[in-house]
Amino acid sequence: xxxxxxRRGREVEVTMCGGNETSQGEAELKKGLQGLMxxxxxxxxxxxxxxxxxxxxxxxxxxxxVKLTKTNEDGKEIILSFMQADDLVxxxxxxxxxxxxxxxxxxxxxxxxxxxxxxxxxxxSQNGEMxxxxxxxxxxxxxxxxxxxxDLLMNGKAGALASVLVRACNSYGxxxxxxxxxxxKLNHADIAxxxxxxxxxxxxxxxGWKEQGIVEVSQxxxxxxxxxxxxxxxxxxxxxxxxxxxxxx
Length: 249
Hints:
Pfam families: cNMP_binding, HTH_Crp_2. This is Helix-turn-helix domain-containing protein. InterPro entries: cNMP-bd_dom (IPR000595), cNMP-bd_dom_sf (IPR018490), Env_Response_Regulators (IPR050397), HTH_CRP (IPR012318), RmlC-like_jellyroll (IPR014710), WH-like_DNA-bd_sf (IPR036388), WH_DNA-bd_sf (IPR036390). Keywords: Activator, DNA-binding, Transcription, Transcription regulation. The structure is a single chain. With about 250 residues, the chain is an alpha+beta fold. About 35% of the residues lie in helices and about 30% in strands. The strands form four sheets. Strands 3-10-5-8 form a four-stranded antiparallel sheet. Strands 4-9-6-7 form a four-stranded antiparallel sheet. A four-stranded antiparallel sheet has the order 11-12-14-13. The longest helix is centred in the middle third of the chain and has 27 residues, at about 130-155. The chain starts with a strand and ends in a 16-residue tail after the last helix.
């Protein structure tokens, strides 16, 4: 989808990578996984697993939203990702005695399909094509995390914040005449944990961008008026042309 925004006396063409296209192979894999699932309701505050727990199952998101976090030795928490419907939550390396490297906390109630690792291993060993699709799925998850860490470590706090807003536009963005409205509420504390900054630093940076006409913040929702400016701040070389499977929350 392409949108032309008139801002600051010029026209800016914005190519949105909205949508989350699923390949035929991935669709077949997820269809096959349905037969392995036990459905479970999840409520806000529940943990699917804690950091350090042994990996016994993966969780297929039917609905709701889950926050993945990691805590350092000083007890400081950083948000790695937000998982939503159609995402697969958990780690699977095919190694016996594997442990989770992060925590999964429910932030929006819903339903998950619980897939026991032992059942998944049997299914994949009997379906070579689906095993290949599963490797691709896990590889995509690793690339998402890799690029997020790159943005966090290489582009400074402002660049990391700009990257979060671009990803939020792709995951939750709604086109409006004024710009791209991020429909999910992202409070400053959550954003701070996403980029390893303080809430005050996030507030100050957003206020500066508001004065420059880049964003607008109202009633807890963020409107991105100048996404091209955010691309420049975060050093996005692809110009938002990367796959929404990668450039996402």
